[in-house]
Specification:
Strand 14, helix 3 and strand 15 form a beta-alpha-beta unit. This protein has 3 helices and 16 strands. It folds into 2 domains: 136 residues, OmpA-like domain (60s Ribosomal Protein L30, Chain: A, 2-Layer Sandwich), CATH 3.30.1330; 224 residues, Porin. It starts with a helix and ends with a strand. The radius of gyration is 32 Å and the shape is rod-shaped. The longest helix is centred in the C-terminal third of the chain and has 21 residues. With 375 residues, it is mainly β. 35% of the residues are buried.
Length: 375
Amino acid sequence: MRRHHQVLLAAAGVIAASAAQGQPVDGLYVGAGAGGNYRQDQGDYIPPNGGSNAAKLRTDEGFVGLGSLGYGFAGAGLPVRIEIEGDYRQNHIRGLSDANVATSGSGTLRASGAMVNAFYDFDLSSLGITAVYPYLGAGVGYGWNTLHNVTLGFSIPGLLTSTQRFNDTDGNVAVQGIAGLSFPIAALPGVSLTAEYRFYSVLGNTTYTGTQTETSSRFASLNFTSSDRITLGDSFNQSVLIGLRYAFNSAPPAPPAPAPAPIAAPARSYLVFFDWDKAVLTTRARQIIRDAADNSTKVQYTRIEVNGYTDTSGTPQYNQGLSIRRAQAVAAELVRDGVPRAAISIQGFGETHLLVPTGPGVREPQNRRVEIIIQ
């Protein structure tokens, strides 16, 4: 009987631990990502000259990188994460979009931000999906835009050439929306591959000071160099990123048990394991219950005990109810497999009688179980 327990513990422990790696995050985690950034054209306004310029600042596709530190509250029953993030984006400047004059541009537009984000993780394990976990998020913070070695030029052929140069930084409130997928890596407990789409914007106007040089081959009075200022409107960025996330509070898979010797007599005790915070029977659990039901016909018994247990994550009151629900699910399956309901007794022991001793608040796959005892 002991050897039978070892086989069940090893098989169910590996399955449960692999699924737990991708579940909503509980505790501290770190993340990083990188990808491409598309920056929409920005409106260009020059207040010192009065009025506005319909031209827009144009950029090429660029890149984005970010790092984050966060905390997940799945242990409290909330699939929610809060994190702080630092990000950086860079796009090369092509010039101004103005159909009336010839334009040119060079330099880079560099954007950095400090954000506070909130996420909601979707756990699809009740549907049998544990390979991917979708999430949605939103963030608010502050973003800085830098015009680095930027030269903007426009000309009216045969009349005037104007060149603006900027090396300046300004910032404003920033917001973002996030949609992503995380893919747990079974071989690396706690590590998930992430794929994200982000819409990021620095709201309102940002203003940059530089110089303007105008030259004219026709009118000498138009030749001058003066200070200049350019004001840009809202910046809108669309980014696609690939990254990695590591959750520190992730249990490694249970080590494999040694191969058991053949068992001559039918077993009188069986262990059925459950995913974290679940009372849903897996395919493997149904097989174990079927074996118990079949073997109950081969031995004499007076009653069949079905005892439910949980690990120590969650409150004792919640765990007591969860252990009873697990025992009820196993008893119902035994009845479907032909065991008389009157022969079954059900008990729930919550987080007491741990199979693997742990401290409070620990997700231990081998403690999330129901034991079937044929008396």
